[in-house]
Amino acid sequence: MTDDPAALLAYDRDHLWHPYSSALTAGVPYLVESASGIRLRLRDSDGGHHEVIDAMSSWWCAIHGYAVPALDAAARAQLGAMSHVMFGGLTHEPAIALGRRLVELTPAGLEQVFFADSGSVSVEVAMKMALQYHLAGGDRRTRFFTVRGGYHGDTFSPMSVTDPVSGMHSLFRGVLPEHVFAPRPPAGLDRGPDDPEMAAWERETRALYAAHADDIAAVIVEPVLQGAGGMHIWSPYAVSVLHALAREHGALVIHDEIATGFHRTGPLWGADHGAAIGVDLTPDILCVGKALTGGYLTLAAVLCTREVALGVSRGEAGGLMHGPTFMANPLACAIAVASLDLLRDNDAAAQVRRLHAGLTVGLAAARGIPAVLEVRTLGAVGVIQLREPVRVPEVTAAAIARGVWVRPFRDLVYTMPPYVTGDDDLERLCAGLVGAVGDVHG
């Protein structure tokens, strides 16, 4: 195949199907020629070059940036031993090391680790765990309880617990299993039981749960930040209400921390925000992914309590009925261990506090744009919400012209920058987003 950029882009347009895109009206993507630090070198369809700050961390996973020496070294060292072996009947040091680190980093009691290929698959596994747990106990609970506004992945079970009305998978209503959705909790991290809107939400949610309690296998939620469902920030108190309902009625709790984990919202886990109000938000099952390998390779994990693992294993099947081909891939596991080392050595919590301060100041100017409904930040997440759908190609092009790569969706222009983004680059990133919104929607 020719290396001519125009020919490459033409072949891409004619043959490659990109996420959420149409084969009838295929857009023309930007060609990435290289990536280093927090920057991408892009080529457009007219042959122009652009060096841009990646405001997206490649869909939130490249938290350390690109061409990271420590992660490159881990990959090379592991390649010298083996890139992959099956995990059925075999094991290896990278998987054991990563499992040990995850058990140490996650809340006490989450002792069993199941490796998966991707975040979506980890949610599939978590839901299967919950179903098998109840079936093994002779309890045929088959439904899940969650809140509107969430997103849990694009495969079938995760789609079924993604908001069926306003979510990304409403097309599949009537085909997917029907689960139980409470209203989205009132926006705001600091809402508590004395807040009138929160009290009303709690009453409605408790009544809804009670009506379906005998059917509910587990509650599944993204704690404090709903990611691709709309970047909604919600209270740890609301999470605690959902925990209480599950505990009161014999259901399990699943946390989807694929987007919120590894300090993206500030603390190590989104559920750690519960400490601020004195509640323990430890789930029975925890899904992690995205940032796990620093964006180098796809890998996810599901952690659960010993009780859940033993309950599943006592069932008719005798074990968890799942086994991905690339489960616990040694190369991915070795890189993940190195990524966790970087989180520790670089003091990721401090990095995120600095980013939060910069995002709060840098995006504030967007509030003066008439088309902007709201600006909100949480940890290393910054969101500009519009009063209308984003004109995605135009905003993207305007941001690139200002030296920033961004991929808006729905009515949101948002950023989840790499943790290593410096103050000057963060200021440029924020100015680029605000300027692009003003250029296109102002």
Task: Give me a quick take on this structure.
The chain is of the alpha/beta class.
Task: Please give a structural write-up.
The protein has two domains: 5-64 and 347-441, Aspartate Aminotransferase, domain 1 (Alpha-Beta Complex); 72-345, Aspartate Aminotransferase, domain 2, CATH 3.40.640.10. It is 36% helix and 17% strand. It contains 13 helices and 16 strands. Strands 4-12-11-10-7-5-6 form a seven-stranded mixed β-sheet, with helices on both faces. The chain has a four-stranded mixed β-sheet with strand order 1-2-3-15. It has a three-stranded antiparallel β-sheet with strand order 13-14-16, covered by helices on one side. β2 and β3 form a beta hairpin. α7 runs parallel beside α8.
Give the terminus-to-terminus CA distance.
43 Å
Count of the domains? 2
The CATH superfamily of the largest domain turns out to be Type I PLP-dependent aspartate aminotransferase-like (Major domain)
**Which structural class is indicated by helix and strand composition?**
alpha/beta
Residue share in helix: 25-40%
The shape is globular
Could you name the ranges where pLDDT drops below 50 across 5 or more consecutive residues? none
Helix count from the secondary structure assignment? 13
Mean pLDDT: 95
Task: List its traits.
7-stranded mixed sheet, 16 strands, 2 domains, Aspartate Aminotransferase, domain 1, single chain, globular
Topology summary:
Blueprint: H1 5-15, E1 31-36, E2 39-43, E3 49-54, H2 57-60, H3 69-79, H4 93-105, E4 110-116, H5 119-136, E5 143-147, H6 156-160, E6 180-182, H7 196-212, E7 216-221, E8 225-226, E9 232-233, H8 236-248, E10 252-256, E11 285-288, E12 300-305, H9 306-313, H10 330-345, H11 348-362, E13 372-378, E14 381-386, H12 392-401, E15 404-405, E16 412-415, H13 423-441
Parallel strand pairs: 3-15, 5-6, 5-7, 7-10, 10-11
Antiparallel strand pairs: 1-2, 2-3, 4-12, 8-9, 11-12, 13-14, 14-16
Helix pairs in contact: 3-10, 4-10, 5-9, 7-8, 11-13, 12-13
